[in-house]
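Entry: TetR/AcrR family transcriptional regulator
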Amino acid sequence: MNKRAEKMAENRAKLISAARKAFAEKGYAAASMDDLTSTVGLTRGALYHNFGDKRGLLAAVVDQIDSEMALYAQKAGAETGDDWQGLLAEGTAYIEMALDPEIQRIVLLDGPAVLGDPSQWPSQNSCLQATIQIVEKLISQGIMKTVDAEAAARLLNGAALNAALWVAASPTPEEVLPLAVEAFQALASGLLNQPAR
């Protein structure tokens, strides 16, 4: 990478880091782009060059956090050592992250309000592809009913995402969380070939 490209990547990382902090503390609407850029010693021009506008910067921050959420959820799933339990653990971990104040404010409240439907975000597409692979494996092993793998993956991911959005928007997220997790797991279990009794 040449010096100019390195500097651009460094500036981009600085802006994302500063925006992440500002959006978490103040919310998207109240975060000042002048304050944010001066915090990292850059100009508004650097922000516009890298992200187009404030909305583009939010999209980059949401993409970074949502990708971290996906990795965390996948790790939770992998730790179970079982594909089916892993699928449930991934969805559950995603829902539970709705209690994290940074995730709650940036990804689950401001993100959809400013960027639109989360299921259309690039980071959600990579989650979908990973879920499709697990679902295909579970179907081939006879653990899950023979249904369209993409349809099942979209519904599972959508259920986890909507449960997380519900938890984040609730005035009592700690009370809503166990209800959301229980319903998500019951819903997912309907895809089992032999549902647990």
